[in-house]
Structure formats: C-alpha cells, structure tokens
Amino acid sequence: MWGRECETWGSEVAECPEAGAVGASRGGFFGAGSWLLCPASSHHGYEGSGRHRGAHSLAGLYLGTRPGADKGYCVPWSRAAPGPLPLLHSHTVLASAAESSSRAGRQTPACVQAHFYQRLCRQPAGVCDCRNWAMLEAHEAPDVTWDGRFSGTCELLTLHAFPPFRVLPGILVLGDSCPAHVVNSVFGFRQADGRKVLRSSIREFLCSEAMFHLGVPTTRAGACVTSESTVVRDVFYDGNPKYEQCTVVLRIASTFIRFGSFEIFKSADEHTGRAGPSVGRNDIRVQLLDYVISSFYPEIQAAHASDRVQRNAAFFREVTRRTAWMVAEWQCVGFCHGVLNTDNMSILGLTIDYGPFGFLDRYDPDHVCNASDNTGRYAYSKQPEVCKWNLQKLAEALQPELPLELGEAILAEEFDAEFQRHYMQKMRRKLGLVQLELEEDRALVSKLLETMHLTGADFTNTFFLLSSFPVELESPGLAEFLARLMEQCASLEELRLAFRPQMDPRQLSMMLMLAQSNPQLFALMGTRAGIARELERVEQQSRLEQLSMAELQSRNQGHWADWLQAYRARLDKDLEGAGDAAAWQAERVRVMHANNPKYVLRNYIAQNAIEAAERGDFSEVRRVLKLLENPYHCEAGAATDPEATEADGADGRQRSYSSKPPLWAAELCVT
Fold this sequence. Notes:
single chain, alpha+beta, three-stranded antiparallel beta sheet, 18 helices, 12% strand, nucleotidyltransferase, AMPylase activity, ATP binding
C-alpha cells in the first residue's frame, strides 16, 4: 500500500460549513463506525469520551469508535481556527506522481480528479490541468481544521507544541481500502503565515519521489499545485525579502506521527524551563501508544497483547531498527537531511520533512547542507549518531510505559548493529562484492571514502563508474578508466571555491581574541565548531594557493592507484569463490547498476527546474521528475541519456543531468 495519510503543505484554509461525522472506507483500515477529522455535533466543542472532553492539546481524531463512545484511540490533533488567508487563484498543476495509479490497475475517473483538485486547491477544478493526477477516490468530508501537535527536541533545546500543519477537509482513499487525510502547512507556526512557496515545494516534491525510486524509506509526493497568490519571504535571512508564489504539495504516508508527537508529555526542560503542553497526561500517552502500535505495528500488538511492557519494548526495538536502516540508506546514496530534530523523525522509519536537504556532490564527510546549521550538528557523517540521539529522546518520552533502562538497553543493542549490518550490506553491493562477506570489506570501504575525500571525487559518479572497472590485471582499459575517474575529481578551481573563507578576516580575528581573553563567554556563544571549520578553510585555502593543477592531478592519480590495487585484490578473492568468471562479472555489473544511481536530485538540477518554473515553464520539473523515477537507468536514450549534454540556456546553466555540478552551484545556499 502507498499509505494512508496525505499532507498538503501550503494549501488554503477555507470557511467551515456544517460539520458531520465521516464514515469509514468500506471495511478497510478503519472499522465500521470509525470517524475521522471532525466531531459529530458542532465545530465549537470537541465531543469525545468524557475525560477528554474539551479543547485539550491532544483531543480529536479518534479511530475505531463513534463520537461519544467510552473508549477510543487518540492521536495528537487539536482544533484550530482558520485564519484569513487568501485563496489560491489561477492555479496550475505543476506536476503529479501518476505512477501511483498503476498500483491499483485502474484509471482515475475524471470526475474524481476534478473533485480532488477542488478540495486541494480550494477553487473550482475546471481551471486545473488534472490529466495526470493519480488519486483513485475522493470522499466528501466536512470543512474542519485541526492543528497537528507535537514537540521537538534538538541538542540543548526543547520546543513544545509545534503546530506545523493543518488538516484540510477531505478524505482520500488510495487503492481499494487505504484511507488518507489531507494536511495543510505551518499556518501560525513561528508567527509566520504558514504558506509554502514554489521554490521549496518543487524541491520537496522532487526529492520525496527521488528517494522513493532510489529505494529509500520515505513519504511520497502526490501532486504539486502552484498559483499566482504570493507571499513575502526573506530567502536567505539577509534583509532582502521578495514575493514568491504560494504552492501546495500533497504528501502521502501511512502516518505522519513523529518522535516529537510523544514529547508533548515532557516535563520541564532543564535548560529552557518549558514543559510539554500535555505534561502529566499519561492517560493520553497510553492512548497514543496504543493507537500507533495497533494501527501500524499490528504484528507486535498481536504477539504481545497480554504484556504491555513487552509490547512497548518490541515496538521501540522495531522503530530503532527501521530508523537505523533508513539512515544507512541515506549514507549509501549521499543524502543529507539538514534538520534532524525529533519532530522530523517518523515513527515508521520514513524520511520525512524535506527542507534544506542535499545530496553529496564532492565527497566531504563534514558536508552541511543546511546553511542555517552553523555548528554542523547535522553534517553528513553525523547523521547516524543524531538519529540514535533522537531515539534516546523517544525512549525518554515513552516513560513510564517503557522503562527508560529497558529502552536504553534496546537502543544500545540494536541501533549500531543494525546500521552497520545494512550499511555494509549495501556498500558491498555498490562495490560489486557479490560472493563473499569479509571483515576486510569495512577497511576497503573506509579507504575508498578517504580517497574520495582526498581527491574531491564526486560521490554518485565515482560509485557509478566502478562498475566499468576492468578486473583483468593487464587490461588495456585500465588507463582509460583511470582517466575517466580523474574527471570526477575536483579541479583546483573547484577546491578553491569549496574552501573559500566564509567569515571576514577581521571578524575571525576578533573571535579568536575573544576565545583567548574570555573563553567562558566564547563557549556560551556556541560558535566553537564554526570557528574551527573556518580555520580549517583558511589553512586549506593557503595550501591550495601553492598547488598547481599538474601537482593536484599527480597526487590524485597516486591516491586512486593505491585504492584500486586493493580493490582488485578484493575482487580476485570474490572471483575465486565464483567459479564461472563470465557469470560472476555479469552478476557483479548487474548488482552494481542496481545499487549505484546515475541520477540524484543535485542542487543545481533542482535550481534549474525552480528558475524555469518561476518563469512559468513547468516542463523542466516534469522532465526531472521523469528522470528521477528511473535513477538506475543505464541504457542510452534520447530523453534520459546522461552523456548527452542538454542545450545551453541563455545563462549557460543547463548541463547533463549526471554531470558534476557547475562552478556556479557552489554559490547555492539552502536554509
């Protein structure tokens, strides 16, 4: 199944007509008589079981019972008043993931498409081009708006009661019995207007679909709809705001419950003094936990129905495993999330909330894709440990339903082992090691990444090229292979751009003086990591100024010759256990092509699509989407051949979709 819940980020909040109960979906996920998103009687007061009556922060969205029943499951939603936002007007369907409809093996009726766009855009569907929409059914639902409630934790800071999205009126059914609901954006969040804009919507839409087709656990994107309505955004927080188009992204997943959903019960934080909005309400924590386990982990519920502690332990163990598996997949495709707070961690181990993400170009383990992450907390190499830290926070939030010592023991036992197991399994496939699993493989992978770092090699293209490595010792193709590999290493100009200082030298000098004269104040400013990185840039820049291109190429060739020698020796061991050399080589290449993508959503590719869309040309978004739906494509073709460079635009910004990034891409900044 594709999923059960849908989010639309940036969509409109409409007026609320008469409400009513919402029925279940023909014996599917919700049982007969279940209800969703609305009270049965009125807009003005939540009507649930007696002890939850009223506008508590975790009221609403009961599943499995009728309103007014004595028992029911509760997930974190609370009623919110719609704000005076302008409606989308003159909107256009930028792109949609039509592939999903083929899962059910039937076409989407035109009337259903039109009805869906009417609900999604808050406007008559006649002005929408919905020919490619993939939704199967849409059911009437009352217009009721709910805030999603959860808390979020990052290092040394706890933020409570984020209202990051709105539940839009509309029940959608994916497949024959897979219910879904539509959710809005961050209206009122951080005193903002909650509108998503075209720029970030395109990035989120394309990346969530790219990750799905890469095989990474993720939420999906169903459609992206933009309009002529505009809002003011200060894109780089530098005092230069501009108008941007309001846009809707439909996101789909089994659930959007996060680690942070369980943190609304947290006691006062020792640093901020803030407590969760539902602190002390263990009765609601019990209901939320029961709902999540019974709905999304039914096998665990069935196996431990008589022992709640063991059930909760099994649940936390499975969440730990899924999270470790997910982040291992990230590391293997070079994906950087950018904002790994607990509120951005799915309880199902899915990649969720695509914001300032990025894919590695030049391999750098310390790469930070989010320009707002001044401390480098969410750097590429730190993602596994941050995910583990977030699981620790989830274990703390599950107390007393899961004793903390038991949760910590499970985390220590499962996370590192599962991460390393899946990471090495994937890396062996990426290297074409199809016969043997040897302990030395870990060192081989580590040395490869070190070589890529030293030579500034492109992460995606280097792995892809390895499938053409000639395994014969005296192969005449070795020199050609090495030359192609050198093309994927960073040039001197690229390195100088990458390591250019980010701070004014006078500011850096003042910060260093402060560190010497008042180390306590310097520590409180939280800039130690940033200063250390800046000093490294200055030192690296100084070395690069004294290096010639010929010296750089000679050094790079030496590094790669050393690693390729070790790689060939390891392949020889694999071949010895294979018997048939030709069959082994064919299987090796097949496995490598299935695990090393040729196409990922590089920032410059996304930027080209965004700039075209801002000019009213959405063809590039659709073209990139089609390409990302087949990232492991290896056959030449007119539409998707990466070796065929696209025609240059007026500004020379078009390139092959599998090229290393152009020099101008070094100036791209995502926050």
